[in-house]
Amino acid sequence: MLEVQNLSVNYGVIQAVKGVSFNINQGEIVTLIGANGAGKTTIVKTISGLLKPKSGEIIYQGNEIQRNKAPQIVQAGISQVAEGRHIFAGMTVMENLQLGAFLQKNRAEIEHSYAEIFQKFPILKKRRNQDAATLSGGEQQMLAIGRALMVKPKLLLLDEPSMGLSPLFIQKIFAIIKELNEKGTTILLIEQNAKQALAIADRGYVLATGTIQLSGTGQELLTNPEVQKVYFGG
Ligand code: ATP
Q: CA torsion 204→209→210→216, rounded to 10°?
């Protein structure tokens, strides 16, 4: 579904991503794990068209997309939940969701998307007329995921969805990711929470200082002694 080939991305003279290659097959959950500054967010932003690569290709469903603009990439079926959630304060839950529907023109389709999202996240329905800023961290993360789902993406990019959440909400978010995948959404999951990400992933890649160091199935990486030492603290 998605193939990243020899991708390099710079910020000025800083080389954040150095010749990274990986792929995501339709129906998979693929996780990219790695320490702070490894280049994970940079990769996600480049796939979603917010950054342009210095070199390399991103091929989505057979087409090169690395020169496409972000709205075009969303239209093609790739939706992103950015790190830090970016909920719009001063706007209600409904209004935040509406922003996710910017590409949809058909009112009935938009209503259908709301209904689906409220079914997945009953708490959002309950809080639909509330200022989004008053939601808890976990509820905001659900709203951010809900907003990304308004366009019914084929490929969902999740950048650190568990960040800053309580253990209970982390469990909930991972369960939601698994369920979305089971219902047909392909997922690229960026996580610092390596253990839980690998546990639900079909495959994973370990990124360090802008390069891929290891790859394998979720299970292989979970039991890899090097991964255990560096990422699970023991
Ligand atoms: P984290 O888990 O901390 O978000 P990450 O793996 O997502 O880390 P990136 O945010 O992709 O890492 O950053 C990769 C490298 O690029 C880091 O060295 C970072 O300091 C640098 N970097 C990121 N954004 C910028 C920017 N806007 N300008 C300059 N350097 C940047």
A: -20
The reply to whether 62 falls in a domain is: yes
The two tokens of residue 124 are 């959002």
Q: What digits encode the pLDDT tens for the residues 92-120?
A: 999 999 888 877 778 888 888 889 899 98
pTM, entire model: 0.92
Measured between alpha carbons, how far is residue 155 from residues 85, 130, 198, 227, 230 in Å? 18, 29, 18, 27, 29
Per-residue confidence band for 27, with pLDDT thresholds at 50, 70 and 90 = very high
Determine the atom of ligand 1 nearest the C-alpha atom of 34.
6
Would 137 be classed as within a structural domain?
A: no
**What is the SS3 assignment for 139?**
helix
Cα 209 to ligand 1 centre (Å): 10
CA of 13 to the centre of ligand 1 (A): 13
- Residue 40 sits in a domain of what CATH number? 3.40.50.300
- Closest protein CA for atom 9 of ligand 1: 39
Domain membership of residue 100 (yes or no) is no
- The total domain count for the chain is 1
